């Protein structure tokens, strides 16, 4: 049986985490998929999948093979596109991830612009306030905020954000402005778990940094909710600078403790494919990088 076919079957089963799901995706019968996986494992002399009655998971060897198989199949598709003369025309499904509010404010406009430019592309956008593994979850492009671990993914820097403490002018007029982190103890705190999951807020950098324990009167699971509470004058909150930039510029919120802020956090656009990236990935990444680097709120 053709090696590329076996590879394609394995990728489908591993990503769908099941033989039935892989068969539906490929339009094959489950017995044919089972035979293909058995043939591939026999050819390689290694077990690629662990099977139970409830799920199928790739073994350690299977995960390594999955990464290589995805790359090889992507390069084969790229070669087909180039030979067919459609290399410059993005097409197909693109899956993109970013933090929730960042995605809504900065990534979604880029997605809409890209879709209008290329009618043969469709996009699935996963906006989540957690770190998403592009390889394990089958994603094409991701936006990451924060320092990056060592990775084989390509990461393109596009800007910076800061953790900022802010409150409404009405609140500060009534309760006074904190001049140092310790003074937060006497203020009403609104904590947004995506930005401040701990009751300890870190300020400054290195040995000169200080940690202040806060006692939130209001804890929320979304940044939007924390912003709304601060705009209503309820208390002091800590958020990313891009999340409150328009409110700060308009004077609806006021930044405090600016001299104690931690170092800025880098923003990267990441993708798995390197020099041979498909036209859809390469085109979207180029567009998104240009748009993000032009944002004053991310400088």
Molecular structure report:
With 299 residues, the protein is α/β, with parallel strands linked by helices. The protein has three domains: 3-84, Winged helix-like DNA-binding domain superfamily/Winged helix DNA-binding domain (Arc Repressor Mutant, subunit A, Orthogonal Bundle); 92-152 and 272-298, D-Maltodextrin-Binding Protein, domain 2 (3-Layer(aba) Sandwich); 163-260, Periplasmic binding protein-like II (D-Maltodextrin-Binding Protein, domain 2, 3-Layer(aba) Sandwich). Helices cover 40% and strands 23% of the residues. It has helices at residues 3-16, 19-26, 30-44, 60-84, 100-117, 169-175, 223-231, 241-250, 279-293, and strands spanning 49-51, 56-58, 92-98, 121-127, 141-145, 154-161, 163-167, 189-192, 200-203, 210-213, 218-220, 236-240, 254-256, 265-271. Helix 2 packs across helix 3 (30-44) and helix 5 crosses helix 9. The chain is elongated. The model has no long low-confidence stretch (mean pLDDT 88).
In short:
It is built from nine helices and 14 strands. With 299 residues, the chain is of the alpha/beta class.
Going across the major beta sheet, what is the strand order?
Answer: 4-3-5-14-6
Q: Sheet with the most strands?
A: 5 strands, mixed
User: Would you tell me the structural class of the helices and strands?
Assistant: alpha/beta
The total domain count is: 3
Order of helices and strands: HHHEEHEHEEEEHEEEEHEHEEH
N-to-C CA distance: 53 Å
Q: Would you tell me which CATH topology of the largest domain applies?
A: D-Maltodextrin-Binding Protein, domain 2
CATH class of the largest domain: Alpha Beta
Runs with pLDDT <50, length 5+? none
Beta-strand content: 15-25%
- CATH architecture grouping of the largest domain: 3-Layer(aba) Sandwich
């Amino acid at each position: 049986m053709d090696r590329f076919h076996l590879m394609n079957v394995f990728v489908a089963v591993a990503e769908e985490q099941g033989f039935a799901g892989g068969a539906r995706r490929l339009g094959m019968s489950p017995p044919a998929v089972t035979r293909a996986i058995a043939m591939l494992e026999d050819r390689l002399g290694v077990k690629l999948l662990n099977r139970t009655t409830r799920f199928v998971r790739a073994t350690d060897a299977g995960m390594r093979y999955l990464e290589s198989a995805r790359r090889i199949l992507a390069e084969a598709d790229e070669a087909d596109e180039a030979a067919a003369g459609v290399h410059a025309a993005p097409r197909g499904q693109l899956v993109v991830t970013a933090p929730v509010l960042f995605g809504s404010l900065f990534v979604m406009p880029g997605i809409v612009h890209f879709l209008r430019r290329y009618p043969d592309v469709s996009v699935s956008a996963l906006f989540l306030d957690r770190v998403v593994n592009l390889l394990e979850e089958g994603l094409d492009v991701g936006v990451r905020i924060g320092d990056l671990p060592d990775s084989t993914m390509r990461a393109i820097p596009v800007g910076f954000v800061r953790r900022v403490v802010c409150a409404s002018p009405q609140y500060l007029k009534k309760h006074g402005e904190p001049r140092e982190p310790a003074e937060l103890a006497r203020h009403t705190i609104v904590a947004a778990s995506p930005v401040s999951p701990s009751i300890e807020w870190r300020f400054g950098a290195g040995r000169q940094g200080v940690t202040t324990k806060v006692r939130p009167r209001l804890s929320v699971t979304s940044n939007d909710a924390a912003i709304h509470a601060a705009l209503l004058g309820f208390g002091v909150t800590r958020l990313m600078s891009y999340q409150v930039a328009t409110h700060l510029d308009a004077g609806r919120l006021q930044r405090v403790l600016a001299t104690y802020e931690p170092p800025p956090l880098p923003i990267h656009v990441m993708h798995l494919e390197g020099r041979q990236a498909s036209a859809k990935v390469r085109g979207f990444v180029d567009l998104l990088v240009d748009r993000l680097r032009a944002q004053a709120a991310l400088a």
